[in-house]
Design goal:
By secondary structure, the protein is α/β, with parallel strands linked by helices. Helices cover 41% and strands 13% of the residues. Helix 1 crosses helix 2 and helix 3 packs parallel to helix 4.
Length: 246
């Protein structure tokens, strides 16, 4: 396979293992372009396809995308319905290529609260790609970081109640194994587009030592040049993980 085109001076031997992206700005992009917000989300999906393909091509191990939070149910009915339809459209149009590229899909979040068609589409995507060994593509749908932590604590509590574990045996590793991202590396690079500078309840545990980059571009305009610039910025930072610089 030919070497992918790089749009910034990045070292493919020092890539972040796990990249997280908060895909922000679809609504503002639609407003700027005098379009309905649903068209902004659809344009954002087009941008997403390129980032997923390139992450797989250059060798990123895991890519986590914040698609629909638990708070997003509070948006207008029209916007929620548009987002639900996009979920179906995305998996219908992309699942064959993702499977062919050896991508493994994991859904972060509570699938049980989704409409039946969407829930079935997500379950089928996970089952179809479950044995793939390439890019780990995590898509957060009906996801909240605090809810994920509560869920992990409940799972540990159930083990204690069943007599399979004592409270004294709790470790960070055991807790991490109850998260949706069990077995994956923590997030190295977290990108949030549109210039907003907050996590918005996304992967609170996994981002303990992540490097954050906040490009001002709105998500539908986020392209490979922007993506590679974020990776280059990550590679230019010194990561100390709580230690003092030598």
């Amino acid at each position: 396979m030919s070497t992918p085109t790089l749009y910034a001076p990045i070292d493919l031997q020092r890539l972040p293992k796990h990249v997280g992206i908060i895909m922000d700005g679809n609504g503002r992009w639609a407003k700027q372009n005098k379009l309905k917000v649903a068209m902004g989300h659809r344009a954002g999906t087009e941008a997403l396809r390129e980032i997923i393909r390139n992450s797989s091509d250059i060798g990123i191990q895991a890519l986590s995308l914040y698609a629909f939070s638990t708070e997003n149910w509070n948006r207008s009915q029209a916007e929620v319905e548009a987002l639900m339809q996009l979920i179906l459209d995305f998996f219908h149009s992309e699942i064959d290529e993702l499977d062919e590229k050896n991508v493994r899909i994991t859904i972060l979040g509570d699938k049980s609260a989704l409409p039946e068609k969407q829930r079935e589409a997500l379950i089928q995507a996970e089952e179809r790609t479950g044995k793939n060994t390439g890019l780990k593509l995590n898509i957060a749908i009906n996801y909240g970081g605090r809810a994920e932590l509560v869920r992990a604590a409940q799972l540990l509590a159930q083990d204690v109640k069943a007599g399979a574990l004592s409270p004294e045996a709790f470790t960070e590793e055991l807790f991490a194994d109850r998260l949706y991202t069990a077995g994956m590396p923590d997030v190295d690079l977290m990108i949030r587009t549109s210039g907003e500078m907050r996590l918005s309840n996304f992967m609170l545990w996994q981002c303990s030592y992540a490097e954050f980059v906040f490009p001002t571009v709105l998500w539908p305009d986020f392209d490979l040049r922007q993506y590679h610039q974020c990776i280059a910025e990550f590679q230019g930072r010194k990561r100390r993980f709580g230690k003092r610089e030598e």
